[in-house]
Specification:
The strands form 4 sheets. A 6-stranded mixed sheet has the order 6-7-8-3-9-10. Strands 2-1-4-5 form a 4-stranded antiparallel sheet, with no helix packed on it. Strands 11-12-13-14 form a 4-stranded mixed sheet. The chain is globular and about 80 Å long. About 35% of the residues lie in helices and about 20% in strands. It starts with about 40 loop residues before the first strand and ends in a 14-residue tail after the last helix. Helix 5 packs across helix 7 and helix 16 packs antiparallel against helix 17. The longest helix has 23 residues. By secondary structure, the protein is of the alpha/beta class. The structure holds adenosine-5'-triphosphate (ATP). Adenosine-5'-triphosphate (ATP) binds next to helix 1. InterPro entries: AAA+_ATPase, ABC_transporter-like_ATP-bd, ABC_transporter-like_CS, CBS_dom_sf, P-loop_NTPase.
Length: about 475
Amino acid sequence: MTTSDPKTADTPTSGDHRTEDTKATGSNATGSNAEHTGVEIVLDHVTKEYPGAGRPAVDDVNLTIPAGETVIFVGPSGCGKTTTMRMINRLIEPTSGRITIAGRDNKDLNANELRRNIGYSIQSAGLFPHLTVAQNVGTVPRLLKWKKSRIKDRVEEMLDLVGLDPAEFRDRYPRQLSGGQQQRVGVARALAADPPILLMDEPFGAVDPITRGLLQDELLRLQDELHKTIVFVTHDFSEAVKLGDRIAVLGYQSKVLQYDTPEAILAAPANDTVAKFVGSDASLQQLTLLRVRDVEIERRPTAREDDPVDYLRDQVRDWGIILDSRDRPVRWVRQRDLRDARSLRDVGEPVGELVSLRSTLQDALEAILADSSASAIVTGVRGRYEGVVTIDTLISTVRTLHEEHAHDHDESDDDSSPAPGPGVPDVRDPIEKAAEAAKAERARSADETDSDGSAAADDPEQAHR
Ligand SMILES: Nc1ncnc2c1ncn2[C@@H]1O[C@H](COP(=O)(O)OP(=O)(O)OP(=O)(O)O)[C@@H](O)[C@H]1O
Protein backbone atom coordinates (compact mmCIF):
# COMPACT_ATOMS: atom_id res chain seq x y z
CA MET A 1 0.00 0.00 0.00
CA THR A 2 1.29 3.43 -0.83
CA THR A 3 0.72 6.11 1.70
CA SER A 4 2.14 9.52 1.56
CA ASP A 5 2.08 12.87 3.20
CA PRO A 6 0.64 15.50 0.97
CA LYS A 7 3.38 17.03 -1.10
CA THR A 8 3.55 20.61 -2.11
CA ALA A 9 4.00 20.76 -5.85
CA ASP A 10 4.63 23.99 -7.70
CA THR A 11 2.05 23.09 -10.30
CA PRO A 12 -1.08 25.06 -11.05
CA THR A 13 -4.04 23.86 -9.06
CA SER A 14 -7.09 22.45 -10.66
CA GLY A 15 -8.98 25.52 -9.52
CA ASP A 16 -6.50 27.79 -11.22
CA HIS A 17 -6.89 25.96 -14.43
CA ARG A 18 -8.80 28.38 -16.63
CA THR A 19 -7.40 28.17 -20.09
CA GLU A 20 -7.04 25.24 -22.38
CA ASP A 21 -3.47 26.30 -23.03
CA THR A 22 -2.23 25.76 -19.49
CA LYS A 23 0.21 22.90 -19.12
CA ALA A 24 1.38 21.72 -15.73
CA THR A 25 4.75 20.10 -15.35
CA GLY A 26 5.68 18.02 -12.35
CA SER A 27 7.35 14.76 -11.44
CA ASN A 28 5.62 11.63 -12.60
CA ALA A 29 5.82 8.13 -11.18
CA THR A 30 8.66 7.12 -13.46
CA GLY A 31 10.68 10.12 -12.39
CA SER A 32 10.92 11.43 -15.95
CA ASN A 33 10.60 15.09 -16.68
CA ALA A 34 8.26 14.55 -19.60
CA GLU A 35 5.69 17.30 -19.87
CA HIS A 36 2.20 16.27 -18.94
CA THR A 37 -1.03 17.98 -18.05
CA GLY A 38 -2.05 15.91 -15.02
CA VAL A 39 -1.52 16.91 -11.39
CA GLU A 40 -0.98 14.83 -8.26
CA ILE A 41 -3.90 13.97 -5.97
CA VAL A 42 -3.29 12.89 -2.37
CA LEU A 43 -5.89 11.35 -0.07
CA ASP A 44 -4.70 11.74 3.50
CA HIS A 45 -6.61 9.81 6.21
CA VAL A 46 -9.88 10.35 4.36
CA THR A 47 -13.07 9.07 5.99
CA LYS A 48 -16.72 9.39 4.98
CA GLU A 49 -19.56 8.47 7.26
CA TYR A 50 -23.04 8.94 5.77
CA PRO A 51 -25.54 10.25 8.33
CA GLY A 52 -27.17 7.42 10.26
CA ALA A 53 -25.10 4.72 8.54
CA GLY A 54 -23.49 3.38 11.73
CA ARG A 55 -20.09 2.77 10.19
CA PRO A 56 -18.05 4.71 7.66
CA ALA A 57 -18.51 3.99 3.94
CA VAL A 58 -14.85 4.98 3.53
CA ASP A 59 -12.53 4.54 6.47
CA ASP A 60 -9.15 6.27 6.81
CA VAL A 61 -7.91 5.98 3.25
CA ASN A 62 -4.39 7.06 2.32
CA LEU A 63 -3.51 7.11 -1.35
CA THR A 64 -1.27 9.13 -3.63
CA ILE A 65 -2.36 9.37 -7.25
CA PRO A 66 0.67 10.48 -9.27
CA ALA A 67 0.42 13.27 -11.82
CA GLY A 68 -0.26 12.09 -15.35
CA GLU A 69 -1.11 8.49 -14.42
CA THR A 70 -4.24 6.41 -14.76
CA VAL A 71 -5.16 4.89 -11.40
CA ILE A 72 -7.95 2.36 -11.27
CA PHE A 73 -10.13 1.76 -8.22
CA VAL A 74 -11.31 -1.81 -8.39
CA GLY A 75 -13.26 -3.68 -5.78
CA PRO A 76 -16.58 -5.35 -4.97
CA SER A 77 -19.93 -3.60 -5.21
CA GLY A 78 -20.61 -1.28 -2.31
CA CYS A 79 -16.99 -1.21 -1.09
CA GLY A 80 -16.81 2.58 -1.39
CA LYS A 81 -15.17 3.22 -4.79
CA THR A 82 -17.62 5.88 -5.96
CA THR A 83 -17.71 7.61 -2.58
CA THR A 84 -13.90 7.77 -2.55
CA MET A 85 -13.77 9.15 -6.08
CA ARG A 86 -16.50 11.75 -5.58
CA MET A 87 -14.71 13.20 -2.59
CA ILE A 88 -11.95 14.32 -4.98
CA ASN A 89 -14.25 16.78 -6.78
CA ARG A 90 -16.31 17.37 -3.63
CA LEU A 91 -19.52 15.96 -5.00
CA ILE A 92 -19.27 14.28 -1.59
CA GLU A 93 -17.60 16.04 1.35
CA PRO A 94 -15.32 13.90 3.56
CA THR A 95 -16.22 13.60 7.25
CA SER A 96 -12.53 13.85 8.12
CA GLY A 97 -9.14 13.82 6.44
CA ARG A 98 -7.73 15.92 3.65
CA ILE A 99 -7.55 15.71 -0.12
CA THR A 100 -4.94 17.78 -1.90
CA ILE A 101 -4.79 18.52 -5.60
CA ALA A 102 -1.39 19.65 -6.80
CA GLY A 103 -0.56 20.34 -3.17
CA ARG A 104 -3.64 22.43 -2.37
CA ASP A 105 -6.38 21.31 -0.03
CA ASN A 106 -9.50 20.87 -2.15
CA LYS A 107 -11.57 22.49 0.61
CA ASP A 108 -9.73 25.74 -0.12
CA LEU A 109 -10.91 25.64 -3.72
CA ASN A 110 -14.32 26.91 -4.77
CA ALA A 111 -16.51 23.80 -5.15
CA ASN A 112 -18.14 24.84 -8.42
CA GLU A 113 -14.90 25.88 -9.98
CA LEU A 114 -13.29 22.66 -8.78
CA ARG A 115 -15.97 20.59 -10.52
CA ARG A 116 -15.70 22.58 -13.72
CA ASN A 117 -12.00 21.88 -13.73
CA ILE A 118 -12.20 18.18 -13.06
CA GLY A 119 -13.64 16.19 -15.96
CA TYR A 120 -16.28 13.71 -14.82
CA SER A 121 -17.68 10.87 -16.84
CA ILE A 122 -20.17 8.27 -15.60
CA GLN A 123 -21.69 4.97 -16.67
CA SER A 124 -24.79 6.28 -18.39
CA ALA A 125 -22.74 9.06 -20.08
CA GLY A 126 -25.05 11.50 -18.23
CA LEU A 127 -25.71 13.62 -21.32
CA PHE A 128 -28.37 16.33 -21.23
CA PRO A 129 -31.16 14.84 -23.41
CA HIS A 130 -32.52 18.19 -24.59
CA LEU A 131 -29.12 19.47 -25.76
CA THR A 132 -27.34 18.55 -28.99
CA VAL A 133 -24.01 16.75 -29.00
CA ALA A 134 -22.21 20.07 -29.62
CA GLN A 135 -24.08 21.77 -26.77
CA ASN A 136 -23.34 18.85 -24.44
CA VAL A 137 -19.62 18.89 -25.25
CA GLY A 138 -19.51 22.68 -24.90
CA THR A 139 -21.16 22.72 -21.45
CA VAL A 140 -18.11 23.49 -19.30
CA PRO A 141 -16.46 25.93 -21.77
CA ARG A 142 -19.82 27.82 -21.77
CA LEU A 143 -19.81 27.94 -17.96
CA LEU A 144 -16.24 29.19 -18.15
CA LYS A 145 -17.53 31.94 -20.51
CA TRP A 146 -15.31 31.08 -23.42
CA LYS A 147 -15.98 32.96 -26.68
CA LYS A 148 -18.48 31.26 -29.01
CA SER A 149 -15.94 30.74 -31.79
CA ARG A 150 -13.49 29.16 -29.36
CA ILE A 151 -16.18 26.82 -28.00
CA LYS A 152 -17.15 25.82 -31.54
CA ASP A 153 -13.53 24.99 -32.43
CA ARG A 154 -13.03 23.10 -29.20
CA VAL A 155 -16.19 21.02 -29.71
CA GLU A 156 -15.00 20.01 -33.20
CA GLU A 157 -11.57 19.15 -31.85
CA MET A 158 -13.00 17.03 -29.02
CA LEU A 159 -15.38 15.14 -31.29
CA ASP A 160 -12.48 14.40 -33.62
CA LEU A 161 -10.40 13.28 -30.66
CA VAL A 162 -12.97 10.68 -29.56
CA GLY A 163 -13.48 9.42 -33.10
CA LEU A 164 -16.82 11.07 -33.99
CA ASP A 165 -17.12 13.01 -37.25
CA PRO A 166 -18.25 16.52 -36.16
CA ALA A 167 -20.22 17.09 -39.38
CA GLU A 168 -22.26 13.95 -38.76
CA PHE A 169 -22.72 14.11 -35.01
CA ARG A 170 -22.60 17.71 -33.76
CA ASP A 171 -26.33 18.46 -34.27
CA ARG A 172 -27.73 15.13 -33.11
CA TYR A 173 -29.48 14.65 -29.80
CA PRO A 174 -28.30 11.95 -27.36
CA ARG A 175 -31.31 9.72 -28.18
CA GLN A 176 -30.06 9.60 -31.80
CA LEU A 177 -26.76 7.99 -30.73
CA SER A 178 -25.78 4.42 -29.89
CA GLY A 179 -24.64 3.64 -26.33
CA GLY A 180 -20.98 3.62 -27.41
CA GLN A 181 -21.36 6.96 -29.22
CA GLN A 182 -22.99 8.46 -26.12
CA GLN A 183 -20.02 7.29 -24.04
CA ARG A 184 -17.65 8.95 -26.50
CA VAL A 185 -19.59 12.21 -26.25
CA GLY A 186 -19.45 11.86 -22.45
CA VAL A 187 -15.66 11.55 -22.60
CA ALA A 188 -15.43 14.49 -25.06
CA ARG A 189 -17.51 16.59 -22.67
CA ALA A 190 -15.34 15.61 -19.70
CA LEU A 191 -12.22 16.65 -21.63
CA ALA A 192 -13.58 19.82 -23.24
CA ALA A 193 -12.09 22.36 -20.83
CA ASP A 194 -8.78 20.45 -20.82
CA PRO A 195 -8.94 19.63 -17.11
CA PRO A 196 -5.81 18.22 -15.50
CA ILE A 197 -7.91 15.51 -13.83
CA LEU A 198 -10.48 13.14 -15.21
CA LEU A 199 -12.73 11.10 -12.90
CA MET A 200 -14.41 8.19 -14.68
CA ASP A 201 -17.00 6.10 -12.81
CA GLU A 202 -17.54 2.86 -14.73
CA PRO A 203 -17.74 4.91 -17.92
CA PHE A 204 -17.89 1.85 -20.16
CA GLY A 205 -20.09 -0.27 -17.92
CA ALA A 206 -23.25 0.02 -19.99
CA VAL A 207 -21.97 -1.00 -23.43
CA ASP A 208 -21.42 -4.39 -25.09
CA PRO A 209 -17.99 -6.07 -24.73
CA ILE A 210 -16.83 -5.22 -28.27
CA THR A 211 -17.68 -1.52 -28.01
CA ARG A 212 -16.20 -1.56 -24.55
CA GLY A 213 -12.89 -2.86 -25.92
CA LEU A 214 -12.91 -0.12 -28.59
CA LEU A 215 -13.62 2.60 -26.04
CA GLN A 216 -10.83 1.27 -23.81
CA ASP A 217 -8.41 1.39 -26.77
CA GLU A 218 -9.56 4.93 -27.47
CA LEU A 219 -8.94 5.98 -23.87
CA LEU A 220 -5.43 4.48 -23.97
CA ARG A 221 -4.73 6.40 -27.17
CA LEU A 222 -6.08 9.64 -25.69
CA GLN A 223 -4.07 9.23 -22.51
CA ASP A 224 -0.92 8.60 -24.55
CA GLU A 225 -1.49 12.02 -26.03
CA LEU A 226 -2.90 13.94 -23.07
CA HIS A 227 -1.29 12.54 -19.89
CA LYS A 228 -4.14 13.54 -17.61
CA THR A 229 -4.39 12.28 -14.06
CA ILE A 230 -7.22 9.78 -14.45
CA VAL A 231 -9.09 8.06 -11.64
CA PHE A 232 -11.20 5.28 -13.09
CA VAL A 233 -13.66 3.09 -11.19
CA THR A 234 -14.52 -0.42 -12.36
CA HIS A 235 -15.64 -3.83 -11.10
CA ASP A 236 -13.75 -5.52 -13.90
CA PHE A 237 -10.21 -6.55 -13.08
CA SER A 238 -9.22 -7.18 -16.69
CA GLU A 239 -10.34 -3.63 -17.56
CA ALA A 240 -8.16 -2.41 -14.67
CA VAL A 241 -5.17 -4.36 -16.01
CA LYS A 242 -5.66 -3.00 -19.50
CA LEU A 243 -6.08 0.66 -18.58
CA GLY A 244 -4.21 1.21 -15.32
CA ASP A 245 -0.72 2.49 -14.70
CA ARG A 246 -1.55 1.49 -11.14
CA ILE A 247 -4.45 -0.37 -9.60
CA ALA A 248 -5.85 0.22 -6.12
CA VAL A 249 -7.61 -2.99 -5.10
CA LEU A 250 -10.15 -1.84 -2.53
CA GLY A 251 -11.93 -3.89 0.12
CA TYR A 252 -14.90 -2.84 2.23
CA GLN A 253 -14.83 0.75 3.47
CA SER A 254 -12.31 1.41 0.70
CA LYS A 255 -9.53 -0.33 2.63
CA VAL A 256 -6.57 -0.35 0.26
CA LEU A 257 -5.71 -4.05 -0.03
CA GLN A 258 -2.98 -3.52 -2.60
CA TYR A 259 -1.81 -0.52 -4.60
CA ASP A 260 0.69 -1.28 -7.30
CA THR A 261 1.25 -1.74 -11.03
CA PRO A 262 -0.89 -4.35 -12.82
CA GLU A 263 2.27 -6.42 -13.42
CA ALA A 264 3.11 -6.53 -9.72
CA ILE A 265 -0.45 -7.33 -8.62
CA LEU A 266 -0.81 -10.11 -11.17
CA ALA A 267 2.57 -11.60 -10.32
CA ALA A 268 2.20 -11.35 -6.55
CA PRO A 269 -1.25 -10.61 -5.10
CA ALA A 270 -0.81 -9.24 -1.56
CA ASN A 271 -3.23 -11.64 0.07
CA ASP A 272 -5.99 -14.18 -0.52
CA THR A 273 -8.67 -11.54 -1.05
CA VAL A 274 -6.70 -9.83 -3.80
CA ALA A 275 -5.77 -13.19 -5.33
CA LYS A 276 -9.45 -14.15 -5.52
CA PHE A 277 -10.26 -10.83 -7.10
CA VAL A 278 -7.45 -11.17 -9.62
CA GLY A 279 -8.78 -14.59 -10.55
CA SER A 280 -7.13 -17.80 -11.65
CA ASP A 281 -6.21 -16.50 -15.09
CA ALA A 282 -3.62 -14.05 -13.74
CA SER A 283 -0.88 -15.43 -15.95
CA LEU A 284 -3.05 -15.07 -19.05
CA GLN A 285 -3.73 -11.47 -18.06
CA GLN A 286 -0.01 -10.87 -17.63
CA LEU A 287 0.37 -11.75 -21.27
CA THR A 288 -1.81 -8.76 -22.18
CA LEU A 289 0.76 -6.43 -20.61
CA LEU A 290 3.75 -7.54 -22.63
CA ARG A 291 4.43 -7.23 -26.33
CA VAL A 292 6.11 -9.54 -28.76
CA ARG A 293 9.00 -7.07 -29.11
CA ASP A 294 9.72 -7.54 -25.36
CA VAL A 295 10.58 -11.24 -25.65
CA GLU A 296 13.02 -13.50 -27.48
CA ILE A 297 12.20 -14.08 -31.11
CA GLU A 298 13.62 -17.30 -32.55
CA ARG A 299 14.49 -18.01 -36.16
CA ARG A 300 13.34 -20.93 -38.30
CA PRO A 301 14.85 -22.06 -41.59
CA THR A 302 13.33 -20.02 -44.43
CA ALA A 303 13.44 -20.00 -48.23
CA ARG A 304 11.65 -18.11 -50.97
CA GLU A 305 9.11 -19.90 -53.12
CA ASP A 306 11.43 -19.97 -56.14
CA ASP A 307 14.50 -21.18 -54.21
CA PRO A 308 15.61 -24.78 -54.88
CA VAL A 309 13.95 -27.41 -52.66
CA ASP A 310 17.36 -28.76 -51.58
CA TYR A 311 18.18 -25.44 -50.03
CA LEU A 312 15.45 -25.85 -47.45
CA ARG A 313 15.64 -29.67 -47.24
CA ASP A 314 19.17 -29.40 -45.86
CA GLN A 315 18.19 -27.00 -43.12
CA VAL A 316 14.75 -28.07 -41.93
CA ARG A 317 14.75 -30.54 -39.07
CA ASP A 318 11.18 -29.96 -37.98
CA TRP A 319 9.47 -26.88 -39.41
CA GLY A 320 10.57 -24.31 -41.97
CA ILE A 321 8.85 -21.27 -43.46
CA ILE A 322 8.37 -20.40 -47.13
CA LEU A 323 8.41 -16.69 -47.96
CA ASP A 324 7.08 -14.84 -50.99
CA SER A 325 9.24 -12.60 -53.16
CA ARG A 326 8.82 -9.76 -50.63
CA ASP A 327 9.86 -11.94 -47.69
CA ARG A 328 6.32 -12.25 -46.35
CA PRO A 329 5.58 -15.66 -44.79
CA VAL A 330 3.19 -17.79 -46.85
CA ARG A 331 3.46 -21.43 -45.79
CA TRP A 332 4.78 -23.64 -43.02
CA VAL A 333 6.62 -26.67 -44.31
CA ARG A 334 7.69 -29.83 -42.48
CA GLN A 335 10.70 -31.97 -43.20
CA ARG A 336 8.51 -34.76 -44.52
CA ASP A 337 6.78 -32.37 -46.97
CA LEU A 338 10.12 -31.69 -48.59
CA ARG A 339 11.15 -35.32 -49.14
CA ASP A 340 9.67 -35.71 -52.62
CA ALA A 341 8.87 -32.10 -53.42
CA ARG A 342 10.02 -30.64 -56.72
CA SER A 343 9.25 -27.03 -55.99
CA LEU A 344 8.64 -24.89 -52.91
CA ARG A 345 5.60 -23.40 -54.63
CA ASP A 346 3.24 -26.26 -53.90
CA VAL A 347 4.31 -27.67 -50.52
CA GLY A 348 3.34 -27.03 -46.93
CA GLU A 349 0.29 -25.50 -45.32
CA PRO A 350 -0.73 -21.86 -45.23
CA VAL A 351 0.53 -19.88 -42.28
CA GLY A 352 -2.14 -19.10 -39.70
CA GLU A 353 -2.65 -15.88 -37.82
CA LEU A 354 0.46 -13.68 -37.87
CA VAL A 355 1.53 -11.39 -35.08
CA SER A 356 3.53 -8.18 -35.23
CA LEU A 357 6.25 -6.89 -32.92
CA ARG A 358 3.59 -4.69 -31.33
CA SER A 359 1.09 -7.51 -30.71
CA THR A 360 0.53 -8.50 -27.10
CA LEU A 361 1.74 -11.86 -25.84
CA GLN A 362 -1.93 -12.71 -25.38
CA ASP A 363 -2.39 -12.34 -29.15
CA ALA A 364 0.74 -14.44 -29.64
CA LEU A 365 -0.65 -17.16 -27.36
CA GLU A 366 -3.89 -17.28 -29.34
CA ALA A 367 -1.92 -17.56 -32.58
CA ILE A 368 0.31 -20.28 -31.10
CA LEU A 369 -2.59 -22.38 -29.88
CA ALA A 370 -4.27 -22.17 -33.27
CA ASP A 371 -1.12 -23.16 -35.14
CA SER A 372 0.02 -26.77 -35.55
CA SER A 373 3.67 -25.71 -35.31
CA ALA A 374 3.02 -24.48 -31.73
CA SER A 375 4.62 -21.17 -32.53
CA ALA A 376 3.45 -17.81 -33.86
CA ILE A 377 5.11 -16.17 -36.84
CA VAL A 378 6.18 -12.60 -36.20
CA THR A 379 6.24 -10.05 -38.99
CA GLY A 380 7.78 -6.60 -39.07
CA VAL A 381 7.70 -3.71 -41.52
CA ARG A 382 5.47 -4.39 -44.55
CA GLY A 383 4.65 -7.85 -43.27
CA ARG A 384 8.22 -9.12 -43.64
CA TYR A 385 9.23 -12.25 -41.73
CA GLU A 386 11.02 -11.53 -38.43
CA GLY A 387 10.97 -14.88 -36.62
CA VAL A 388 8.72 -16.88 -34.33
CA VAL A 389 7.57 -16.79 -30.71
CA THR A 390 7.11 -20.12 -28.96
CA ILE A 391 4.97 -21.21 -26.05
CA ASP A 392 8.13 -22.01 -24.08
CA THR A 393 9.16 -18.36 -24.38
CA LEU A 394 5.77 -17.27 -23.03
CA ILE A 395 6.04 -19.62 -20.05
CA SER A 396 9.56 -18.55 -19.16
CA THR A 397 8.56 -14.88 -19.47
CA VAL A 398 5.71 -15.30 -16.98
CA ARG A 399 7.96 -17.34 -14.67
CA THR A 400 10.55 -14.57 -14.67
CA LEU A 401 7.90 -11.96 -13.81
CA HIS A 402 6.65 -14.17 -11.02
CA GLU A 403 10.17 -14.63 -9.64
CA GLU A 404 10.88 -10.91 -9.87
CA HIS A 405 7.89 -10.16 -7.67
CA ALA A 406 8.20 -13.19 -5.37
CA HIS A 407 9.56 -11.12 -2.48
CA ASP A 408 7.36 -8.07 -2.96
CA HIS A 409 5.55 -8.60 0.34
CA ASP A 410 8.41 -9.87 2.48
CA GLU A 411 8.71 -6.54 4.30
CA SER A 412 4.97 -6.01 4.35
CA ASP A 413 3.80 -4.44 7.59
CA ASP A 414 0.11 -4.90 7.01
CA ASP A 415 -1.96 -7.86 8.08
CA SER A 416 -1.92 -9.60 4.71
CA SER A 417 -0.19 -12.91 4.17
CA PRO A 418 2.52 -13.06 1.52
CA ALA A 419 1.68 -14.66 -1.78
CA PRO A 420 1.59 -17.37 -2.84
CA GLY A 421 -0.27 -18.37 0.30
CA PRO A 422 -3.16 -20.71 0.95
CA GLY A 423 -5.79 -20.21 -1.70
CA VAL A 424 -3.54 -18.09 -3.91
CA PRO A 425 -3.83 -19.52 -7.39
CA ASP A 426 -0.70 -20.72 -9.11
CA VAL A 427 -0.34 -17.96 -11.67
CA ARG A 428 1.61 -20.18 -14.07
CA ASP A 429 -1.09 -22.78 -14.28
CA PRO A 430 -3.15 -21.71 -17.31
CA ILE A 431 -0.15 -21.15 -19.59
CA GLU A 432 1.37 -24.45 -18.60
CA LYS A 433 -1.93 -26.13 -19.39
CA ALA A 434 -1.93 -24.40 -22.76
CA ALA A 435 1.67 -25.55 -23.26
CA GLU A 436 0.74 -29.13 -22.40
CA ALA A 437 -2.06 -29.02 -24.94
CA ALA A 438 0.30 -27.63 -27.58
CA LYS A 439 2.94 -30.26 -26.75
CA ALA A 440 0.32 -33.03 -26.96
CA GLU A 441 -0.63 -31.70 -30.37
CA ARG A 442 3.03 -31.70 -31.37
CA ALA A 443 3.51 -35.28 -30.14
CA ARG A 444 0.42 -36.36 -32.07
CA SER A 445 1.71 -34.81 -35.27
CA ALA A 446 5.16 -36.37 -34.69
CA ASP A 447 3.45 -39.78 -34.35
CA GLU A 448 1.70 -39.15 -37.61
CA THR A 449 5.07 -38.37 -39.16
CA ASP A 450 6.51 -41.66 -37.84
CA SER A 451 3.61 -43.74 -39.05
CA ASP A 452 4.08 -42.00 -42.37
CA GLY A 453 7.50 -43.65 -42.51
CA SER A 454 9.43 -40.42 -42.28
CA ALA A 455 11.92 -39.59 -39.55
CA ALA A 456 11.00 -37.37 -36.62
CA ALA A 457 13.49 -34.67 -35.75
CA ASP A 458 16.81 -36.32 -34.83
CA ASP A 459 17.51 -33.95 -32.03
CA PRO A 460 14.70 -33.68 -29.47
CA GLU A 461 15.93 -30.18 -28.61
CA GLN A 462 15.11 -29.21 -32.15
CA ALA A 463 11.48 -30.21 -31.84
CA HIS A 464 9.18 -27.22 -32.19
CA ARG A 465 11.80 -24.79 -33.43
N1 LIG B 1 -25.95 8.80 -0.03
C1 LIG B 1 -25.71 7.73 0.72
N2 LIG B 1 -26.25 7.61 1.95
C2 LIG B 1 -26.01 6.53 2.72
N3 LIG B 1 -25.21 5.50 2.34
C3 LIG B 1 -24.63 5.58 1.13
C4 LIG B 1 -24.87 6.68 0.26
N4 LIG B 1 -24.16 6.48 -0.89
C5 LIG B 1 -23.52 5.29 -0.74
N5 LIG B 1 -23.81 4.76 0.48
C6 LIG B 1 -23.30 3.50 1.01
O1 LIG B 1 -21.89 3.60 1.07
C7 LIG B 1 -21.27 2.37 0.71
C8 LIG B 1 -20.31 2.61 -0.45
O2 LIG B 1 -21.05 2.98 -1.62
P1 LIG B 1 -20.34 3.34 -2.99
O3 LIG B 1 -21.39 3.73 -3.96
O4 LIG B 1 -19.25 4.28 -2.71
O5 LIG B 1 -19.71 1.92 -3.36
P2 LIG B 1 -19.16 1.38 -4.75
O6 LIG B 1 -17.97 0.56 -4.41
O7 LIG B 1 -18.96 2.51 -5.68
O8 LIG B 1 -20.36 0.47 -5.23
P3 LIG B 1 -20.81 0.00 -6.70
O9 LIG B 1 -19.62 -0.69 -7.26
O10 LIG B 1 -21.94 -0.95 -6.41
O11 LIG B 1 -21.21 1.23 -7.45
C9 LIG B 1 -22.40 1.41 0.37
O12 LIG B 1 -22.66 0.62 1.48
C10 LIG B 1 -23.58 2.34 0.10
O13 LIG B 1 -24.79 1.73 0.43
